[in-house]
UniProtKB/TrEMBL annotation:
GO CC, any one term: membrane
UniProt name for this protein: DAGKc domain-containing protein
Domain DAGKc: 47-193
GO biological process, one term: sphingolipid metabolic process
Keywords tagged on the record: ATP-binding, Kinase, Nucleotide-binding, Transferase
Pfam family name, one: DAGK_cat
Annotated source species: Brassica campestris
Amino acid sequence: MLRYSCCISNRSYEAKQPSFYRAQRRVCSGRIITLCSGGGATAVSSPRLRDLVFVVNPQGANGRTAKEWKKLLPYLRTRLGEDCNICESLTSGPSHAIDITREAIRDGADAVIAVGGDGTLHEVVNGFFWEGKPVCNLNSEGSHSAALGLIPLGTGSDFARTFGWKNDPCEAVERIAKGIRSRVDVGVIDQEGRDSHYFINVADVHLSAKAGFYASKYKKFGSLCYVIGALQAFMGHHNRDMRIKVNGGEWEVYPQVTALCVGNAKYFGGGMKITPNASPGNGNLEVVVLQDFKWYDFILKLHKLYNGTHLSVNNVSSRSVQSIEVEEVSESGSIYVQSDGEHLGFLPRKFQVLPGAIDMIS
C-alpha cells in the first residue's frame, strides 16, 4: 500500500529533505488528487494494483518536459489506470527527486519512474540509496523491491541510447505496462570524508567533465549546450599527469591525460559513444583514457568519438574494471569530476561498480 504525506514526518531519513518539499499530485485510475502540505497520509487500498511513482522535473528541457508530460498523461491513464495506482510527483528544485524516490521506496512503491533527462534519472538512482546502502521498503520483509523506470523527456537521454530506446514517451509507457525487469549495475563514487555518490550512465574526469560543467549553464540552447560547453572548456585547458589504481592493484602513472571516462553505459554528451564496450549488466565498468589530445584532435576525430570507433586512435586506451582510483600527480585540486552530467567537484575519487544493484523496467 503506497502512502504519501506532504509534510516532513519524524523519520530519520527525511531529516535532510529541503524546505522546498512541496505538495504532490496523485493520479489514481484517471482521477487527480492534490495532497496539500500538512494534510496527512492518504492510502490507496487496492492490493492487486501496482503502485507507480512518476518523478517529473517540470523545468527540464527549458519547460518542455512539463508540456510533454501534460500531453502524455491522458494516454498514461488510459494505458495504466486499470492496473496501477499512479502517483505524479513534481520536483521543485535540486535533489528533490532523491527525496521523493527514497520516500516512495520506503512506502512500498513497485516502481519509481524518472520523467525527464539524464539529470532526473541520476537523482532518482541516487534516491535508491541512503548512507551507502539500498533504501528498503519499511512495510515488507525484504521480498519486495522497487524497480527503476524511465520516460525520456529531457535535454539529454544518453542512458536510453545504450538500450536502443527511442525518445518516444508512448513507447516508454508500453515498457512500463509490460513491467519486465532486469538487473542493472550502478557505479558508486567515493571520496574520503564525503558521502557516496551513485551513477548509472557515465562518470568522467578533466576536460569532458569541465565541458559538462559549462554545458549545464547553457541548457536553454538544447543539445547545442554540449558544443558551447566544450568550446569554453578548451579555453585555458592543459593536459595533466594522473595516477591510476585499478582493482586495488599498484598505482600507475598516465601522463598528459586529457579526459578519463568511466562507463556503466555507452553514451554521454548528447550522443557521444565514449565507452562503446560498456554494458549496464556485465558487472564491470569500462574506463577510456584520452591522452595528449590537442584541440584539433577533437575536430579531426570527433566522428570517431560519436560512432565509438575512437578506441583504435593513438593515445586512446580502454580497460574493463571493477574499481579504479584516480589522483592528479601535482594535486592542484582543479581537475573536474562529473557523473551523468552532474558536477561533483574535483579529484581525487574512487569509482567502483555495484553489480545488479537495481531492478530496471526494460
